[in-house]
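Listing S7. Sequence submitted for prediction.
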Amino acid sequence: MCRGIDGHGSHSHRSITLRKRDDSPPPSRNGKLSFTQNANVVRVTIDNPPINLLTTELVSDLYEFLLWTQPGFGKTTPKVVIFSSAIPDFFISHFDLSNLVTSAGQTALAQLMTCGRLLQSITSTVFIAEVNGRTFGGGQELSSQMAGGQIFLGSIIGKARALEHLLASRQINAEQGTDFGLFNNNYRDEATLRREVDGLAARIGLFPQAALNNTKFSLAFLSPTPQQLDEQIVTFSPIAALPQSQEAIREVIDGSDQSSNDYERNIPNSVVESLYSQELSAMPDGGNNCLDAVSDAKGATGWRRHIS
């Protein structure tokens, strides 16, 4: 429950500040985001077909939007921001592998890390990820960044589970993620997901922004430090530039074309099968025991997640 300004769980005066038209977010530069606004809530729809790949254009639009949400003198900012997807089956996918080691890609990676810092440091706005499909790699990192992303995944689901899923590159479905505490709730259909998220956002939007800010700030110590986030990209970039990494990236791009196909829908298994086919075939069971059981995610992986 949000604490009132007086520090108690209730307060005698409630007010709803209707945002002025001039306080609406500006159109995204690259057209990868669209915005709808209702009182104190802004819904951001991510639309970068076919799979919401984290291209330089999408990352740039996310970066500029989050800069806009920063509080400033005489500036009204939204109390709640909801991120949703216009792409069936995909929320946010991985980073654009074809740009991973280019100068433009390095700029986008730096912007992506800044997005994570902004999502954590902006305590005057509550961010909610309305995950209505698959999210992989950088997309998963971004959608969970407000609770720490990869470097704090152990504190969310436990060290042993985090190591299992990160080291083995295993998927976490909606039911598992909810049981682990990674997601707040999961729903069987998108309509229920949308209704519940809208209701939650509207309720949060009733409280004074100072109370929301105080509640989020009191939990900020659970987030990774800026230094830890910087270390992530410092250690990641040299590994991505290694010859064996570049060879693996080219093989993944050739197999998936980074488009909406079966390879991308089940990319953790797809990568293991394409890069280590010989090793799998040499195993007694043909490597089947190494691969996760694949289930149709459509209609079964809608979940709601608070981003603090």
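Caption to Listing S7: primary sequence and predicted structure tokens for the chain studied. The beta strands are 33-38, 41-46, 80-85, 89-92, 126-131, 133-135, 185-187, 302-307. The radius of gyration is 20 Å.
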